[in-house]
Specification:
Elements (H helix, E strand, L loop, with lengths): L3 H4 L5 H6 L12 E3 L2 E3 L1 H10 L16 H6 L3 H6 L17 E4 L16 E6 L2 E5 L3 H8 L12
Antiparallel strand pairs: 1-2, 3-4, 4-5
């Protein structure tokens, strides 16, 4: 509609980061429909690959690495909301907000990033959502994992 030169400037994360700006990711339309599921990792994948829904690369020069993409949903939004001393990274004194995924986001093949999903979500150091996957953590940590739950899930 606007031409490829304008399309190549959509979400210029690469240029923003190079210029010292810390962009954040906004999720809209999460869920499944029409045989396709849109998850937060779908958006990260698009920031990394710059592939649109048709599989065409748009603005490839604006692609960012996996760590930067992850920061667009963690520490950088914490700065944006002026809460970087309370949230956004796992550090002593901060609320433990984190997600455990079914795959290792950093090492999984790029094409598998959109198929990653949350097994468990912890907000404010409290378990708020999980799939029956805590047993995976027990295997990883070699014993019983005890998590305070606030959702009864």
């Amino acid at each position: 509609m606007y031409g490829i030169d304008k399309a190549n400037r959509i979400s210029p994360f690469g240029s923003l980061i190079k210029g010292g700006v810390v962009p954040t990711t906004e999720y809209e339309g999460l869920g499944c429909g029409g045989g396709e599921c849109v998850t937060p990792t779908t958006f990260l994948y698009k920031e990394i690959t710059r592939l649109n829904d048709k599989g065409d690369a748009i603005g490839k020069s604006e692609a960012i690495d996996r760590v930067s993409a992850l920061k667009t949903t963690t520490i950088w939004p914490a700065y944006y909301t002026l809460r970087e001393k309370q949230i956004g990274s796992l550090e002593p004194g901060k609320l433990a907000d984190f997600v455990v995924f079914n795959k290792d986001y950093i090492t999984v093949p790029e094409a598998e990033i959109p198929t990653s999903y949350a097994l468990m979500t912890v907000l404010g150091s409290a378990l708020v959502a999980h799939e029956e996957k805590v047993k995976i953590l027990e295997r990883v940590f070699g014993g019983r994992v005890s998590l305070r739950t606030t959702c009864g899930c």
